[in-house]
Amino acid sequence: MTPPNRPESAPNRREPVRYAGSEWVAANLKLTLSPFAVKVANILGEIYRGIYHLETGALKKAEWTHPYRVRVAVPDDSLATFDFDGMTQLVFLAHDQCVRVQLDQSGPRQIGLVFSEREREGGMSRRHPTLEDAVALHRERHPLAVEAR
After folding, report:
1. Furthest-apart CA pair in the chain: how many Å?
2. Pairing status of strand 99-105 against strand 69-75
3. Which of 8, 57, 58, 141 could make a disulfide contact with 73, Cβ separation 3.0–4.6 Å?
């Protein structure tokens, strides 16, 4: 018997969860976020299973009204590729949302994340590939990745 809320075709898949992001920032920091900052806050909400898990002081320092760039400091122990896979999720969501993310230095035990708005087409400084295009390019450029599979 299939447990409630699980479709027959995917018994081992969980239903998607949407964690608090931009709505929480707007309500708790009393701000009107730019449309780009809404994307950033929602990405961070997904990675941290609620943006409220980040330090309030760091969230207050972010420029949530900027139209195409947001910088946020996050804990330095929260970004990894598999266990505690925040780095992987950050990369996947950035490609899905067409957002460039750069790591930056920050205070002790923190990493700065700089988010910049991008488009699918255009010059190198304006475009951002889909996740699928980025993986295809990686496989083409780095044969060791294919050999290790």
Report:
1. 53
2. unpaired
3. 58
